[in-house]
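Example 9 (inverse folding). The structure is encoded as follows.
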């Protein structure tokens, strides 16, 4: 096309030039016309010529009238026409699946500090498994104070496992615990009375197994559970104790009602150089439970049969009720019950380790226990519970200092029925994952049956714990334990043996001062594997005593490193 334009422009310019030349020429004479010779060049337009191979010599067939029919598949949906003019709700977009965190199931911890503190701890677990859980735990902790033989050491070893099946869950554990200490008690008025404190060692072996059926939504479901526990306990001297406890539970749901039976059989034997007691108890608790909207009422009886060294048959009422006034915010509950509690040397030494030999074993009877209160939440992260109770207790155990060995304790029983009125409050506040605080307060007013005081039973006890994550790496912890003063009995002369009724003329009442024990600690997370920790106990450095003549270790501090894997 461009080439054609060039040709046309050339022709126009040439024609113009010729005409201009002709216009300028003078008309020749007749003689000159004959002598002039003119040369004429004719230029024609460019005409392209196609090659034979480019030409198309085939014409379309106009007689082809065949019609194309497309094939369609129809799927009709039967839908109801909805006359809905409301604005459709927005559908939330699904969040992308989070990356599963790598779980760290095991750790080892070690530390040391003042008061010759040594800490060693380890925990191992098989890891994440929906059907099987198993692991082991070990701990060693020892300390020494400034007083003569104010030393103690404790070792714990536990192996546990759990198997979750389709219909039931099986679990079991094996525990071993060893406590070593000295009878280091000192009388400040006579510091030379205990020049060479005796050593005491407790050994405790325990085995436990349990089977529980899995929960089902079936309103007429049958549920059950069974548990067996046994232990062997001994000290450095001649005291030995063994126990086997069997527990069973059955429950049948029928609409809003539950019919069930809870049963237990406790077999125990305690031996010492001068004492041998076979203490066995059988308990049966049939009940009926109503569980409707906001209401839970449980009514039944507690049948208790003692046999062995003690023989008696008792029947107590058991009634509990729980009413929801404001869902999740306020519940009112109450309870009326009675029971027989089997006492043991293991129980006594857990409470007071400086126990004497040949301790008399008797059971304690709660003739009537009435309690009631409120509980609930005040919003996310805030929970509370308040309870008031009244108990009538027969043969309540109490600790008193032995006359011949002032630094050892005997167990006496308040002959008759004592009365106890108490108030208990619990509070839990969790502002966020970084801050959590819990507190518990107890007020108890004892009215002894035969004794002049409820020995070593303070009227007020308070405990509180605080945990605050300052940053992702630093965690701060604090605790406080407060206890009001209590009373202790000191014999002026040897009491009657066996001891039944107290003799006020042969006893002196000593006040054990109350105390406040503050503790604080911090943990620094170096990385996902290593952490450093520090703990300080008895910040006020007070020489307080829970039991007469036994001062607690003063301010002490220890720290160390933990490794997780």
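The amino acid assigned to each position is listed next.
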């Amino acid at each position: 096309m461009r080439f054609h334009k060039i040709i046309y422009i050339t022709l126009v310019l040439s024609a113009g030039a010729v005409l201009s030349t002709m216009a300028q020429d003078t008309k020749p004479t007749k003689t000159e016309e004959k002598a002039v010779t003119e040369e004429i060049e004719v230029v024609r337009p460019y005409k392209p010529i196609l090659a034979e191979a480019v030409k198309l010599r085939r014409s379309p067939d106009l007689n082809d009238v065949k019609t194309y029919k497309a094939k369609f598949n129809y799927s009709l949906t039967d839908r109801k026409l909805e006359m809905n003019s409301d604005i459709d709700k927005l559908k939330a977009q699904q969040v992308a699946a989070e990356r599963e965190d790598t779980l760290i199931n095991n750790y080892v911890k070690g530390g040391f500090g003042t008061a010759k503190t040594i800490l060693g701890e380890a925990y191992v677990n098989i890891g994440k498994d929906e059907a099987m859980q198993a692991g082991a735990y070990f701990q060693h902790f020892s300390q020494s104070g400034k007083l003569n033989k104010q030393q103690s050491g404790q070792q714990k070893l536990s192996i546990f496992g759990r198997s979750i099946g389709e219909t039931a869950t099986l679990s079991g554990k094996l525990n071993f615990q060893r406590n070593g200490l000295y009878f280091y008690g000192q009388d400040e008025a006579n510091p030379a009375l205990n020049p060479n404190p005796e050593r005491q060692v407790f050994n405790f072996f325990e085995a436990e197994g349990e089977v529980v059926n899995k929960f089902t939504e079936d309103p007429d479901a049958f549920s059950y559970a069974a548990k067996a526990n046994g232990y062997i306990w001994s000290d450095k001297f001649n005291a030995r104790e063994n126990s086997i406890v069997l527990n069973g539970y059955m429950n049948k749901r029928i609409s809003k009602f539950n019919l069930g039976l809870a049963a237990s059989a406790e077999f125990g034997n305690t031996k010492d150089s001068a004492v041998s007691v076979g203490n066995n108890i059988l308990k049966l608790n049939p009940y009926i439970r109503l569980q409707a909207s906001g209401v839970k009422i449980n009514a039944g009886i507690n049948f208790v049969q003692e046999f062995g060294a003690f023989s008696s048959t008792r029947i107590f009422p058991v009634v509990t009720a729980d009413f929801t006034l404001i869902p999740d915010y306020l519940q009112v509950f109450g309870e009326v019950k009675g029971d027989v509690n089997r006492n043991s040397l293991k129980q006594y030494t857990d409470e007071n380790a400086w126990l004497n030999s040949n301790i008399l074993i008797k059971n304690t009877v709660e003739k009537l226990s009435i309690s009631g209160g409120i509980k609930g939440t005040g919003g996310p992260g805030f929970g509370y519970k308040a309870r008031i109770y009244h108990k009538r207790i027969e043969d309540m155990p109490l600790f008193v200092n032995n006359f011949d060995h002032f630094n050892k304790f005997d167990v006496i029983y308040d002959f008759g029925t004592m009365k106890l009125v108490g108030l208990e409050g619990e509070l839990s506040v969790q502002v966020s994952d970084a801050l959590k605080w819990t507190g518990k307060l107890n007020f108890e007013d004892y009215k002894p049956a035969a004794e002049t005081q409820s020995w070593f039973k303070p009227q007020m006890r308070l405990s509180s714990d605080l945990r605050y994550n300052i940053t992702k790496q630093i965690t701060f912890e604090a605790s406080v334990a407060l206890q009001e003063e209590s009373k202790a009995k000191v014999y002026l002369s040897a009491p009657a043996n066996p001891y039944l009724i107290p003799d006020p003329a042969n006893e002196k009442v000593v006040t054990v001062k109350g105390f406040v024990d503050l503790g604080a600690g911090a943990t620094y997370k170096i990385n996902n594997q290593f952490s450093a920790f520090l703990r300080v106990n008895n910040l006020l450095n007070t020489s307080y005593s829970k039991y007469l003549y036994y001062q607690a270790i003063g301010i002490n501090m220890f720290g160390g490193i933990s490794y997780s894997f």
